[in-house]
Design a protein that fits this description.
Blueprint: H1 16-25, H2 29-42, E1 46-47, H3 52-75, H4 118-126, H5 133-144, H6 156-166, H7 173-183, H8 196-205, H9 212-223, H10 225-229, H11 233-240, H12 244-255, H13 263-266, E2 279-284, E3 287-292, E4 301-302, H14 304-315, H15 320-360, H16 362-367, H17 378-385, H18 389-396, E5 400-403, E6 406-409, E7 417-419, E8 425-427, H19 428-440, H20 450-459, H21 466-475
Parallel strand pairs: 2-5
Antiparallel strand pairs: 1-4, 2-3, 5-6, 7-8
Helix pairs in contact: 1-15, 4-5, 5-7, 8-9, 9-12, 14-15, 15-17, 17-18, 20-21
């Protein structure tokens, strides 16, 4: 049964303009240029050229000039013959080249880098080996399954099935392992290993050094690899029946090995990634000055052509076709206005938010000392600038600020607070800085445990639990004391 009834609901909805602004806020300066270009391509009523009218006038003038010049040349076509400009005789080569160098001059050419991928480098070495067709195809499959670090991540049994189904090559485990041993002799040393232990052993055995230190290093990696990774040096000394000096010499050789041999070649062709700061802070004789990096955000305005079209359609009598054209032009102009307003509002929101952060953390931006960082959360800044917390979060997300002390991610300045024994609130980042300094200053032969670090922090007035110290240490990517130990 159908019925009708009235119902009132209180809903919170975002307008299209608000949604557009929220999306633009979270875009960093590196990507905003591409977003503006995309909008200009989609909306012809939007223009980033300030002299569009001048360019149109210049274009019309060029057309007039071209017409006049064409008429002029047309009238003179019969005054010359094209054959007068042609010469059938070949010009001698010595007239087309010059040689201003003597035999004693040193010629210097600009070198050009020619990149070679890691896999191509291995395939080029494969051509120097005497392999039949089947083994060559097996070797190509193995090389194709090596990751960027040079390790073989594919299971040998799985490669047997791959070769059978994809290339109709019937092989066995022994043949694949024999081809793999050939690849493991290639450069860079250690390539083709199936794990870190095998990678280090390949490099040690290729040293061709029969010294006691190398022999002990091979023994440690071969038999006591688990103890070595966990730095149980006392167990290795006892089991291998060696003294501490010999163990130290062997470990120095192991530490010189490359755990990721494939990266040694890929580093040369790796593209550098540069950070484009969204904000720039200058220290002008103790006064902080903030500016927004707007080099990727050109000034936008409405297209003069579309404005003229809108005026002409509004003045004239409209049939159905002209009404549709009028609505289309009006829609594009309105959309362009929304986008221009959203870009301006974005810049204004970014500025007032960063300015509030700069004032809040003024001591840090003046000195660069992390211990001067005040505890700051999103709610603190939202209360200052009278914006929603979600808006502050979008501003802080993936934005960078350039300071006199380096370029930092904006959200790294936000941290929780913690009270000292005197009741003073400090930033957790300040505690992490002190914790990091304590670990850097420790004796590597006897590193500080989490319990000892807790005691040190309590002596400095920071009363925190051991599990909190362990959490901060993990956030700083610092291993436990046992793994920081050195001989």
């Amino acid at each position: 049964m159908l019925n009708q009834r009235l119902q009132q609901k209180l809903l919170q909805k975002l307008s299209p303009q608000q949604i557009l602004l929220m999306k633009l806020l979270q875009i960093p300066s590196v990507a905003i240029e591409q977003r503006i270009k995309q909008e200009i391509e989609e909306n012809p009523a939007l223009d980033d050229s300030l002299d569009a009218e001048d360019s149109d006038e210049d274009f019309n003038q060029d057309d007039d000039f071209d017409a006049e010049s064409t008429d002029e040349y047309d009238s003179k076509d019969d005054e010359f013959d094209l054959a007068d400009y042609m010469d059938d005789d070949d010009t001698p080569s010595y007239k087309l080249s010059t040689n201003n160098y003597s035999s004693d001059d040193e010629r210097k050419d600009i070198p050009f880098v020619s990149g070679l991928s890691f896999h191509d480098f291995l395939i080029s070495q494969l051509g120097l080996r005497h392999l039949n067709d089947n083994k060559y195809d097996i070797a190509l499959t193995i090389i194709g399954n090596l990751d960027d670090s040079g390790y073989l991540q594919r299971n040998v049994d799985a490669m047997i099935d791959d070769l059978a189904f994809t290339q109709n090559i019937i092989t066995n485990r022994e043949e694949i392992l024999s081809v793999l041993s050939v690849i493991q002799q290639f450069d860079p040393s250690g390539v083709g290993a199936r794990n870190l232990q095998e990678c280090l052993l390949i490099q040690l055995r290729k040293l061709n050094n029969k010294s006691p230190e190398v022999s002990l290093a091979i023994l440690i990696i071969d038999r006591y690899f688990n103890e070595f990774t966990k730095k149980h040096y006392e167990k290795i000394i006892k089991k291998a029946n060696v003294n501490e000096d010999a163990l130290k010499a062997a470990i120095e050789i192991i530490l010189k090995l490359n755990p990721k041999p494939g990266n040694s070649l890929s580093e040369t062709t790796k593209t550098n990634h540069y950070i484009m700061p969204d904000f720039i802070i200058h220290n002008n004789n103790g006064e902080l000055e903030l500016s927004i990096n707007s080099r990727n955000a050109p000034e936008l305005h409405l297209s003069r052509t579309y404005m003229d079209m809108l005026e002409s359609y509004a003045e004239g009598k409209k049939n159905k076709q002209q009404k549709d054209a009028f609505m289309f032009v009006k829609q594009k102009i309105d959309s362009a206005k929304w986008f221009i307003d959203a870009i301006k509002q974005r810049q204004n929101t970014l500025y007032i938010t960063m300015n509030a952060i700069m004032i809040y953390q003024k001591e840090y931006f003046l000195t660069g000392d992390e211990t001067n960082l005040r505890p700051m959360i999103l709610k603190d800044i939202a209360g200052i600038v009278h914006l929603d917390i979600s808006t502050i979060s979008r501003v802080a997300n993936s934005k960078y600020v350039q300071t006199p002390f380096g370029t930092f991610l904006l959200k790294s300045f936000f941290s929780e607070s913690m009270q000292t024994e005197n009741g003073e609130e400090v930033s957790t980042r300040e505690i992490k800085k002190i914790l990091s300094d304590c670990i850097e200053a420790e004796k590597k032969t006897k590193p500080l445990t989490d319990e000892q670090l807790t005691v040190i922090l309590k002596e400095k007035g920071y009363s925190i639990a051991r599990r909190t110290v362990a959490k901060y240490r993990e956030q700083l990517n610092i291993p436990v004391a046992r793994l920081r130990k050195e001989l």
